[in-house]
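Schema walk-through. Below, the input block comes first and the output block second. Nothing else is stored per chain. Lengths vary across the set, and this one has 181 residues.
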Amino acid sequence: MNTEKLQELVQLRRAIRIRPKYATDQAIHGFPLVVSEQFILIHEINDFHLDGYTVIPLRNLYAVRSGKAERMIERVFTGEGAFDKITVPEEVRLDSFRDLFRSIQKLGKLVIVDSVEVDGETMEEDSFIGKIVGMSPRSVAILNFNGAGEWETEPTVVSYKQIKWVTFDNEYVNTFAKYLP
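--- output ---
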């Protein structure tokens, strides 16, 4: 899908369903908020509930739908009085991965970075959750925590080329963060 069509969906405040290039069996539902040359920022929806923000590189979009099912989501959000809660996060920059991570770090938010590495016919996916502790022109360093709420001792470096999407300010991360040491 071209950026002009995505921009139109942003202007119309339309709900969308995104199928990513990798993991095409997954779908991300939400309201597109900003489209840049490289990224789309959406306010994600889970079970008619706004649940944080996801930034997806445009190169990772497989398909975008905004049809009858998404009109129903819009009717529900309007009827439930939740449409006004759809907001663009302050000061999140989408000029580059480095600017994106810098702005999320400045907001003091933890992130989930989903990555994929494709080598021929082999695809390896991973997910990193924690705080941004550094970035370079080609990668980001994430200090992860595990399911027991323990911080790792060394950060994980993720190449921007491997990032499927970045999620922040969602209920899972925000709730977990309250109980981390």
